[in-house]
């Protein structure tokens, strides 16, 4: 049989084979894959039966499909028959056993497969195994091929499209894996109907299938609705299947579909990453996932080949250290080699960006502000004012995270889950993911009346979204973002405006945060921040408690130990040490008699499922209220050499001058200067709007969204 691999042509194999033994990224990748596969091939072949989710059997099936996929590629590139033999023998063993397995005995909320506890993993298995099969099928006898097709692949295709047909067109990351697996397997087997179904849906009318996934899950800017963690997971089948369609269904013109949304979604994913390459843990997410993920490697290679390669893409390949073993990856490897020879490889530096949400880009947005400080470190502020994120969404519209000096400073909890750690609830999402991690109090945000947004109702949350106010990144001195969330609490409208201020007087950009709440009735407002580090000092007295009690009874409060509390002064100061840097937060509200509460995660957690993260809350009571705060990065600490410099920051005070429906004015005092920040609170503001406010007998005027005035203190320049 003369079967062409779905991802390689004869003309493409020659240049790949020429990379063997080279020190290029492609040469290194091929060598690394050969080393991994050779080591795995020394183990006896094994197709285990059912086991615990995340246990040995689960992981062995994953290893099997991973190394079959790599071995199939290696066979075509190296022409070493041992790799084809490995794939053929292992697929034959699966064909022997697959139909002897019943459906998995361990269940969760997803349908079960014959190999895995959820059908998603079986989709992944078919996806990679089909790719491997396409590389070696021409080496098989008719009997071997028939055995694998009839006893393995066809039963899988039938299960995915008939038994679980109701789940096949689900618009979700599960759906992307399903259509990619079925489409590639159908193509490999010469069953074109499955490829058509995968592209256009079971009804063949575009309501399901791959094109519907791209249309509904990705915004025009390319942002993926479930957040970066699930984006990097879904990008793998998205880009591989796109390359398959590019070759076998050119009439779809996949790389230009929805105005080139595949290229934009790869760029959007890369643009969300912190400067250290990790993705912010927006929505359900791991804290450790980053751009070196295998799916992101494939995506960067596709981006280079089909949408162009700039210095940021080459720099990203340098960080990843590997490329996709395919012609797309070779294009990137070649570009990297040229840059390396010219000494032109740079660290990726993606600009600030606002990524709209929703299929038509009208469901809010996610903001990513970046500014390089005088210490050369890049500060990054993320603010969420988009959609809920479906079943993986958190109740944190207007939440922020902040990163600088190589670390997350105001952090997201991410998910409550220990992936593939079977004793921790089978490696699945823990109950505490619902009772704490997704609740509003777990985020850097204001919680109203100790209740989560939308009353923790997913359907309600999916029906509303944030409203962009302004996004301004055209200044080297002060960049900012502002948005509204008017439908997330009954009787309370919210507006958050956050800024990065770069001034020669400070080592790193200041984070300035204004959180405004509008209501005609009194509420309890908890303005909370989550941090990692050691408390250094405060400017107020507080009482620590020998007997710890939870901060509340529900809505996530039951998981917070109330460690200490104290009456807040007019401006509260809290300073902590994290890594080699000091951070000082100064915050106030427009109300009086506020309280500061220090907390630690871990109450009502009998199985010790939660991390013991630290936090503090400025609690205030009132109607319409403005919280204003500044976070300053300063100093240096090195425990090994017992060095500590500039352990006290320069900002000394934050004051709310006034706020109303027209605008807000805040004054920030440091040792060397006074900064007056004026922002518009009107939804229809433009860059040309003229604004004027009067507070305390003073008139404040400016043009545009906001203005920052700087006045040196007496004796300073």
Q: Any chance you could write out the topology, listing elements then pairs?
A:
Blueprint: H1 10-17, H2 25-41, H3 56-78, H4 81-97, H5 119-136, H6 142-163, H7 165-168, H8 173-188, H9 192-200, H10 210-217, H11 228-248, H12 257-272, H13 294-307, H14 311-320, H15 327-341, E1 353-356, E2 365-372, E3 378-385, E4 400-404, E5 407-410, H16 431-437, E6 446-448, H17 458-462, E7 467-472, E8 478-489, E9 492-501, E10 510-518, E11 523-531, E12 534-538, E13 543-544, E14 560-567, E15 572-578, E16 581-589, E17 595-601, E18 614-622, E19 625-634, E20 636-638, E21 643-645, E22 651-659, E23 663-670, E24 673-680, E25 690-695, E26 698-703, E27 706-712
Antiparallel strand pairs: 1-2, 2-3, 3-4, 4-5, 6-11, 7-8, 8-9, 9-10, 10-19, 11-18, 12-15, 13-14, 14-17, 15-16, 16-19, 17-18, 20-21, 22-23, 23-24, 24-27, 25-26
Helix pairs in contact: 2-3, 3-4, 3-5, 4-5, 4-6, 5-8, 6-8, 8-9, 8-11, 11-12, 11-13, 12-13, 13-14, 13-15, 14-15
Characterization of the model:
By secondary structure, the protein is α+β, with helices and mostly antiparallel strands. The chain folds into 3 domains: 43-217, Alpha/alpha barrel (Glycosyltransferase), CATH 1.50.10.100; 222-350, Glycosyltransferase; 353-646, Beta-galactosidase, Chain A, domain 5 (Distorted Sandwich). The protein is 32% helix and 26% strand. The chain contains 17 helices and 27 strands. β22 and β23 form a beta hairpin. α3 (56-78) runs antiparallel to α4 (81-97).
